[in-house]
Every structure is written in structure tokens, then in C-alpha cells.
Design brief:
- By secondary structure, this protein is α+β, with helices and mostly antiparallel strands.
- The protein has one domain: secretion proteins EscU (name from scop), CATH 3.40.1690.
- Helix content is 42%, strand content 14%.
- Strands 1-2 form a two-stranded antiparallel ribbon.
- It is globular.
Length: 90
């Protein structure tokens, strides 16, 4: 029997005026994950792959803030996203 792990995806939002940490805005496995990724691509939202981070974030509930122990990893992702968006504008 072959086993293929389902794809996972988590979308984060970060509004410095509404909270102190990024929040989970969407998450899912399989087809839901594929839809999240496709919608992000359509909207020009940068996508980064980090299976360990996604595995931790997918356990959170929607609208939960990212826990402190994940701040550094999420900060790296946000920096990546900001740089990529900046390049896309040029």
C-alpha cells in the first residue's frame, strides 16, 4: 500500500493596527490546501514552502494569533513575502 501525505496550506494575515501578531486566516488539507494556494497565486500573494511551519500552524484555529515560539519562523516568511511583493511592483 502506498501512502501519500496530503498537501497542507496555511494563509496568514498581519495587520499591525488590529493585533500584535499574525493570525491564521485560512488553512486546510488536500483540495482545500490546493484552493488556498491557487487563490494566493491568482491574487499575487507570495507563497513560501516550509512543511514544519505549516504542520505547526495548521493545528491552530482560524483567527488564532501565531504563538510566540513560531515568531522567528513567521518573521522570516513575512520578510520573504514583503521582498517578493516589492520586486513584483518594480
Amino acid at each position: 500500500m502506498a501512502y501519500k501525505e496530503l498537501k497542507k496550506a496555511v494563509a496568514l494575515k498581519y495587520d499591525t493596527e488590529k493585533g500584535s501578531a499574525p493570525k491564521v486566516s485560512a488553512k486546510g488539507h488536500g483540495m482545500v490546501a490546493e484552493t488556498i494556494i491557487e487563490l494566493a497565486r491568482e491574487e499575487g500573494i507570495p507563497i513560501s514552502e516550509d512543511s514544519d511551519l505549516v504542520s505547526s500552524l495548521v493545528k491552530l484555529d482560524l483567527e488564532d494569533e501565531v504563538p510566540r515560539e513560531l515568531y522567528m519562523a513567521v518573521a522570516e516568511i513575512l520578510a520573504f513575502a514583503y521582498k517578493k511583493k516589492k520586486k513584483m511592483r518594480k
